[in-house]
Every structure is written in structure tokens, then in C-alpha cells.
Description:
- The chain is mostly helical and 429 residues long.
- The chain has helices spanning 34-38, 74-80, 83-92, 98-109, 118-122, 131-145, 155-181, 194-203, 214-226, 234-243, 249-260, 268-279, 285-293, 314-329, 336-350, 352-356, 363-374, 381-401, and strands at residues 5-10, 13-20, 28-29, 58-61, 66-69, 72-73.
- Strand 2 (13-20) and strand 3 form a beta hairpin.
- The termini are far apart.
Amino acid sequence: MSETTAKLTLGDETYEFPVLSGTVGPDVIDIRSLYAKSGLFTYDPGFTSTAACDSAITYIDGDKGELLYRGYPIEQLAAKSSYIEVCYLLLYGELPSKAELADFENRVTRHTMVHEQMHYFYRGFRRDAHPMAIVTGVVGAMAAFYHDSTDISDPMQREIASIRMVAKLPTIAAMAYKYSVGQPFVYPRNDLDYASNFLHMCFAVPAEEYKVDPVVAKAMDRIFTLHADHEQNASTSTVRLSGSSDANPFACIAAGVACLWGPAHGGANEAALNMLREIGTVDRIPEFIERAKDKNDPFRLMGFGHRVYKNYDPRAAVMQESAREVLELLGVENNPTLQVAQELEKIALEDPYFVERKLYPNVDFYSGIILDAIGFPTSMFTAIFALSRTVGWIAQWKEMIGDPQKKIGRPRQLYHGATTRDYVDIAQR
Ligand code: CMC
């Protein structure tokens, strides 16, 4: 029991609840006994004031614009680390030694191929299927292919399932892309690093050699790193809620992929680039700013605003720098989309509507520009986000499964429907 308590007074009754402190961040009132003591629920749609779990993986200070993976600032990891090292850090809690990293990388690399039968599974989809529809289906179907890693009570099976998903998601996403463009699937190559292998599986064709540019591979690796985890966001909470019923890990991650697809979440990178293209030229920006401010118009500036960040998204700052590097390398610095993006950002950051609401560009504002320059169609953007986030979802799922306080997630409701009434026969209605 903590020393500090919070008191809730309702009429003549006063209820007392412990206040718990984490290592950093707001304290929480432990209201688990509220219903038993008072018969009341709390009401918090959208979880704006609710800590749904106790976690030690990722920390965000939205006011400062700070993002930490296991305590390490995202800017340092983006500059000095690699995605595969970040995966180790998220999954196991500490940075690996050289030997640990080599072993982990080897384990991931040795699991990149997918079951050959999966190739036939792809062929059942329409060629114009959205890659996220395919990825959602294929990840869920992994439980049908890897029966030896679905028993969640076995730590060894949990570990193998985790490695399989980190290793195979790039293959699954790349196959979705290849299928959509009518090209043969490209098998993974174990001599390439994680990001280069993904680029190779997407852009190589059997007819000729494809060399991965190291600058592009570095930018890809950074995109993976910046998206690797993000605390208890909608898709992560979906993974946790799915996992709370002891569903198999592939089903849980498929649920996360499905949630991520929405334009208010991971789908924003696709929506942001489509919006920049729709704006087209700098002179049309004011028209779109006015639409974003008009409460009678559902239009929002995609890639702006965040539930938690009320300051510049630290991932957007790194991404902006990466966008410049990649566009310069590829000789597309005068890309009109980038010009619209830069001008839009400038105008929005000065406009009182956006300033007052603390609406800053988020990670998705610049990631789309980089992915477009690399050659990915917009429909692949969210699939790339999904493959990057898979490790975060798994780390959070593993943490939950190992938590002795784990309970099936079961929110309650404020009911406003009809009260009990008698069924009326159809002839009398
Ligand atoms: N353009 C115009 N107005 C906006 C925007 C925007 N992008 N975002 C928020 N607002 C306004 C909103 O209309 C409201 O104004 P008012 O107080 O006058 O009613 C105020 O700002 C607060 O908005 P909210 O919807 O209550 O904020 P939220 O925390 O529920 O929503 C959000 C967060 C990310 C869903 C929202 O900002 C949004 O829809 N942004 C565009 C989509 C986007 O870029 N999403 C990617 C998020 S980052 C990637 C990820 O982690 O998945």
C-alpha cells in the first residue's frame, strides 16, 4: 500500500484509494476497488485519463516532446543504434553486448523465410487488395502455419513466436507489395541486414541484380526504429486487450495490425502524403488551412496533432532530417511534395488555431515523403509502419503475459439504452 491516498467523497461516504508512483510520469490513483466499495464505475472514453497497465518499456512526455525506449532517448537511438539492436532492447530490456546482438541477429535472420505454403495463401487475394488487408490476414493466419509456437503458457514458444514475427513481418509486407505489382516473390537474403533485406525483397527482380543503396537502407532502418514502439497507443492497447484473453500471439498481432490501419493512427502516413499531393502547390495551402479550421468541414491536416504530444513530436524532427538526406541523395530535393510539406509546416506552426491547440507535425508527416522518394506506393506506408511496430507490440504482449496481475480486459459502460421492455409480436407492431 502506498503512503499517499486520494479521497473521493460522495454524499456522506468517503472512499480512500492508494496513489501509485512510477519512476517518472504522472502518479496514478489505483481505483481497482472503486466498484466493490462504492458500486460506481469511472467514465473515460478514449482513455484520456486512464493508465491501463503497469509497463517498463516506453515512456513519453508529451509536453516536453520526449520519447524513451527503456530509458534511452529516441534521438540517440536513431543516430547511434540500429533497428535490430532496438528490437533487442525493447524485447529484453537492456542494450545487448556484442555477442548477444550477434546471436539475436542470427536468430532473427534464420527465421525470415515464410512457410512455402503461404505463397499459395497470397494467391487467393485480389491483385488490387490493400497491403494492410493482406498483412492483417496473413499475420492472423500464421497461427495456422506455426503450430509449435501458439502455446502462450510455454515461455519457449512465446520466444519463438516473437522471433518469428520480428523476422517474418518484412517478408510478409514485401510479398504483399510484390503481389500487388504482379512481380515474383523475392526470397529473403541472409547476407543482408534487416532494412537492406526488406528493400531487396521489395525492389529486386530475378532478371537483374539489385544493389541496395546504404543511405536508403539507413533511412529505412531509421523509419523502423522511430516506429518501433509508442507506449499504450490504440494498436498496442488492442494487442494487450486481445492477449488478455490468452489468444495466441499471431492473432494478437493481427489485431494490432488491423487497428493500426485506421487513418487516425498508422494510416495517417498514407493520408498525409495523399493530402500533400492533393494540395499540390504552395499557393493552395491557405485554402486547406482554412478547411482544417472550419468546424463544419470534416477535413483535418493529416500528419498534424497527437493525443499525447503537445509539443513537436521528437520522431518528426529526426524524420525531417532523414527526408532531406534521402531526397538529396536521390536528387529530388526540389520535389513539389516536400516543398508543400515544408511550407505547410511553417504556416501551421504560426497559425493561432494550431498554436493554441498545440498541433504540431507528427511522425507521419515526413515518413511518407521518404517512403515515396524510395519508391513505395502510398498503400505500402502503413504496412511498413506495421512491420516496424511489430516488435513493440510483441514486447508489450510478452510483458503483459508475464505480469502476475494480468486479468482479462473487460471495460464497463455508461448505459443509455432502453430499460427492460416486453417483446411485441410482429403482427402487433
Ligand atoms: N487538423 C485540424 N484540427 C485538428 C487536428 C488536425 N490534424 N487535430 C486535432 N485538431 C483539433 C480538433 O478539431 C480539436 O479542436 P477543438 O478543440 O476546437 O474541437 C482539437 O484540435 C483537439 O483535437 P482532438 O480530436 O480532441 O484530439 P485527439 O487527441 O483526440 O486526436 C489525433 C489526436 C491524432 C487523432 C488528431 O490530432 C488527428 O486526427 N490528427 C490527424 C491524423 C494523424 O495525423 N494521426 C497520426 C497520429 S501520429 C501516428 C500514430 O501514433 O499513430
